[in-house]
Design a protein that fits this description.
The complex is a heterodimer of chains A (125) and B (403). Chain A has 125 residues and is mostly helical. Chain A contains 3 helices and 2 strands. By secondary structure, chain B is an alpha/beta fold. Chain B contains 10 helices and 16 strands. In chain B, the strands form 4 sheets. In chain B, strands 4-5-8-3-9-10-11-15-14-13 form a 10-stranded mixed beta sheet. Chain B has a two-stranded antiparallel ribbon with strand order 1-2. The chains are: A mainly alpha (125), B alpha/beta (403). Chain A: One of its GO terms (biological process) is negative regulation of reductive pentose-phosphate cycle. Chain A: Keywords: Disulfide bond.
Chain lengths: 125, 403
């Protein structure tokens, strides 16, 4: 991919690509007030590939188990370990989604291994 | 602000020979793969490797909690070094390692001594030192630093099991990222440079909501419960490591919007330790002064809520530090270029390199705010550090051979 700035005029639309695309839609917007600080977050449900079903299933199971493990004693090691598993699987799910997104463009994939072919060349000027 | 001639990419330059000179040459012995836990194994099939790098890798540590942007940081870092980082070809598809021409990044979760079931039985989290094998971590990082290959275990984040190990060759730059790179004193002493990503509770919560809310089974309650349940171990074992870091990137809610209730705009601080060899902190206008700077005005038009910078000397856990702070976000390219042109000691190779790197990865999270800016700057600083170390070794061969 051409990475020089030489073909990017300061006032061209390309400049706008710096700002991350906003995917805020009416349906995907959830406003959540933070209890402690009064701070809140806009939640944008990201479009794009969904989590592979095996990880997704494991994660939702682990959430149920964590709730169970914490029912008796919230300060127990078992409770912390159970929620830690949820965190680990949530991170794994997110990485798996990123991987799917990365691999979703067949041309990009082909060009990764064959950068010299005609269809993969990029020109700066 | 003409930016007429920017170069495409840069990569690290280092002595690169295939002769058999005493310094450049590495002979690595390793045997067949085995599951035996241990560090470098010797004997057996002999592989002769002429290394195209310095003889001893430069070792970098990156500490942060899960879900706090380590992967994004690593992608920016390896990009600054030149070349894309990929998982090892033909290996375990669940390997956590990333390899590029110059750099190998390993994930310290691979040194879990307890797998998921083991942790559950004992009631300990992955944050707990008891779930991690620091002896093996130390042995293997030390071996890599001495230029030896290692058979590193793989922790499989999907199954929660320890998979058979993978062979890791010493690269030019070896990055260890994870929860505990600075926890064990022996490992800490092996690091040539260390970074801690310090994400405030508010921002951590907002990021995890973004990451997890769409997942089946997750809710605001579950996200909150997970953060809270892990917090005691996080505070006890992860957070204290920041006192040892050469650079800390602190991510906080903005102060530009009174009672901000969106969590989208961030205030980011880059805390840089003074007196670290090969590391010269970035500064704004006048090194060592205290400065507040609002770049938006007559020359530069910014959109709401604007951008605010601050720079000042400070102390951090008893160390002299320089702190550079950015609140707000870039909405247009010229804002970023304007800011870059006013920062000094960036260790760029050409004018506009920071902007170029940010643009190249404009799809990464944080490319329009201080997280992306400071991660990119730290990447440039590490490249600079690496090149200084290489140059020094080349200038003093006998000394380098002893290290």
């Amino acid at each position: 991919m051409a990475s020089t700035l030489t073909n990017v005029g300061l006032s061209t639309p390309a400049a706008a690509s710096l700002a991350r695309p906003q995917r805020v839609t009416g349906a995907g917007r959830v406003v959540f007030p933070f209890r402690r600080s009064g701070f809140a977050a806009v939640v944008v449900r990201a479009s794009g590939p969904s989590t592979p079903p095996d990880i997704s299933e494991k994660m939702s199971e682990s959430i149920d188990k964590a709730k169970e493990a914490c029912a008796e004693d919230k300060a127990s090691g078992e409770c912390a370990a159970a929620w830690d598993e949820v965190e680990e699987l949530s991170a794994a799910a997110s990485h798996a989604r990123d991987k799917l997104k990365e691999n979703s463009d067949p041309l990009e994939n082909y060009c990764k291994d064959n950068p010299e072919t005609d269809e993969c060349r990029t020109y700066d000027n | 602000m003409a930016i007429s001639s920017l170069h495409a990419t840069t990569s690290l330059h280092s002595p690169c020979t295939t002769n058999t000179s005493f310094r450049q040459n590495q002979v690595i012995f390793f045997t067949t793969r085995s599951n035996r836990r241990g560090s470098t194994r010797q004997g057996g099939a002999r592989t002769f490797q002429v290394s195209c790098s310095v003889d001893k890798p430069v070792v970098i540590g990156l500490a942060a909690d899960s879900g706090c942007g380590k992967s994004t940081f690593m992608r920016r870092l390896t990009s600054v070094f030149g070349g894309a980082a990929e998982p090892p070809k033909g290996g375990n598809p669940d390997s956590n390692t990333l390899i590029s021409d110059t750099t190998t990044v390993i994930c310290l979760d691979d040194y879990h001594s307890l797998d998921r079931t083991g942790r559950k039985e004992k009631g300990v989290t992955a944050l707990d030192p008891r779930a991690n094998d620091f002896d093996l971590m130390y042995e293997q990082v030390k071996a890599i630093k001495e230029g030896k290959a290692i058979e590193k275990p793989i922790y499989n984040h999907v199954t929660g099991l320890l998979d058979p190990p993978e062979l890791i060759q010493p690269p030019k730059i070896f990055v260890i990222e994870g929860l505990h790179p600075m926890f064990d004193e022996r490992v800490r002493d092996l690091l040539d440079f260390s970074i801690y990503l310090d994400i405030s509770d508010e921002v951590k919560f907002a990021w995890k909501i973004q990451r997890d809310m769409a997942e089946r089974g997750h809710s605001l309650e579950s996200i909150k419960a997970s953060i809270e349940a892990r917090k005691p171990d996080f505070d006890a074992f992860i957070d204290p490591q920041k006192q040892y870091a050469d650079a800390v990137i602190e991510v906080l809610p903005t102060q530009l919007i009174p009672d901000d209730n969106e969590g989208k705009v961030l205030r980011v601080k880059l805390i840089m330790k003074e007196g670290v060899k090969y590391f010269n902190p970035v500064y704004l206008f006048d090194e060592g002064s205290s400065i507040t700077w609002v770049p938006c005005g007559r020359k530069l038009t910014c959109s709401y809520p604007g951008i605010k910078f601050a720079y000042s000397p400070d102390t951090y856990f008893g160390h002299e530090v320089s702190v550079l702070e950015m609140d707000g976000q870039f909405d247009r390219l010229d804002e970023l270029i304007y800011v870059e042109s006013h920062l000094s000691n960036l260790s760029t190779k050409f004018y506009g390199e920071v902007t170029q790197q940010m643009l190249k990865h404009s799809d990464f999270p944080g490319s329009n705010n201080g997280t992306g800016l400071f991660q990119t700057i730290i990447g440039l600083k590490i490249r600079d550090l690496y090149e200084q170390i290489v140059a020094e070794r080349a200038g003093a061969p006998t000394e380098a051979a002893k290290v």
